[in-house]
Amino acid sequence: MNPPSAALLEGVRILDMATVLAAPFAATLCGDLGAEVVKLELPDGSDPLRRLSPVQDGHALWWKVANRGKRGITLDVRRPAGRELFLKLLPRFDVLVENFRPGTMDRWGLDLATLRAANPGLVVLRLTGFGQTGPLSDRPGFARVFEAMSGFAHLVGSPDGAPQHANYPMGDVIAGAFGAFAIAAAVARRRAHPYEAPAELDLSATESLLRVLDALPVEHERTGEVRGRTGNRASYTAPSNMYRTADGAWMSLVASSDAIFGRLCRAMDAPAMAEDPRFATMRARVANVDALDSAIAAWFARTPAAGALAACEREGVPLARVADVATVMADPHLAARGAIVRLPDPQLGSLPAPAVVPRAMGAAPLPVPRTGPLPGEHNDAVWGELGLDAAALEALRRDGVI
To answer: 64 is in which domain, residue-wise?
Structure first.
């Protein structure tokens, strides 16, 4: 029997004409697992991600890592000649990824019927802020809008403070992960049922965030609770919080089960706490969380980080020091796993980025992808595959089509 391949999506061809982050991230995740991805941009390279910080020597670093592994072409599909070329290109792909407001592609003469006439087997992923239907479908959206509208942001922050966003577009990357899952599922369905009409996937970024808040709707309906902000505590389990050590490190502790809480008490050299009626059960600990946190915080406050980590490791208690990105990049466990790889880059040498997730156990690792392409970097190769010679390509460039 042949060993497994790490290229789980090998043979899948994706045309990514989306902008910024969420939908392109979906295509990138598929590319990480072996799909061939071509990035289509306007000829002026006006994708906002190309201008988003950080920028070094005129190169947008976020673009380079977010669009890793893709070949890059340019085409203005709004022009008649561009539309014609697009429809000629489409049969070469299994999946089209777009993130324009509903009806935009129809106005360009690229409605679903036209796309399917060019490629009857095409899977189309439409990733938008609010979906293809509903009263808000035409609205523009950004990650923080999705986070706010979905209820996600309402959970983050101090009880007496404002809701908070992370200093990262979580709404985009969560939606992108759902996009990659949707593509893989649609491709699997297509391969199992090749004569069935392929999928048109309507992915709402707002609904993606709502989907990960799994238990909140049933909690509200059945108990009347509207879960809110609790700082670093969890309202459903205790102890679960951040604590500061004697040497100023922040530690994240979770001791959810009664058994783990008992081990924590031993780690703190306070075994009697496990028998205290206020703390003996999960329900009791949640009800008496102020007293519980006070006792645990006092132990951390007199214990250096190394001592706290050693005591908890000895007793099998989940504890981690809160790491910044510099600490993450130097973490010996993550280094042993190869969790950060270096992407070859023709302008900047190489750039660090997270490794492919997940890994195919027992398979040879995939080659590390290069960084995202320059605008139209692979025009000659990709358009040449359609039979366009140098003179035709130069004419298209002169006319602003590519």
So the answer is: 13-212+372-398
By DSSP bridging, strand 95-98 and strand 71-74 are unpaired
Q: CA dist 318 to 9, 240, 286, Å?
A: 35, 10, 18
3-state SS track over 188-219: HHHHHCCCCCCCEEEEEHHHHHHHHCCCHHHH
Q: Assess if residue 220 is contained within a domain.
A: no
Concatenate the DSSP letters of all residues of 374-392 into one string: PTTTTHHHHHHTTT--HHH
- 58 and 197, same domain (yes or no): yes
CATH code of the domain covering residue 264: 3.30.1540.10
Angle among Cα 208, 210, 214 to the nearest 5 degrees reads 110
Percent of the chain with pLDDT over 90: 97
pLDDT interval class at 67 (50, 70, 90): very high
**Is 258 an active-site residue?**
no
pTM, two decimals, is: 0.95
Q: Which of 74, 127, 103 is nearest to 379 (CA)?
A: 74
User: What average pLDDT does this structure show over 250-278?
Assistant: 97
29 and 180 in contact (C-beta within 8 Å)? yes
| Residue among 32, 172, 247, 399 flagged as catalytic | 172
- Report the sign of the C-alpha dihedral through residues 209, 211, 214, 217, in that order: positive
Rounded CA separation 276/296 (Å)? 14
Q: Indicate whether 348 belongs to any domain.
A: no
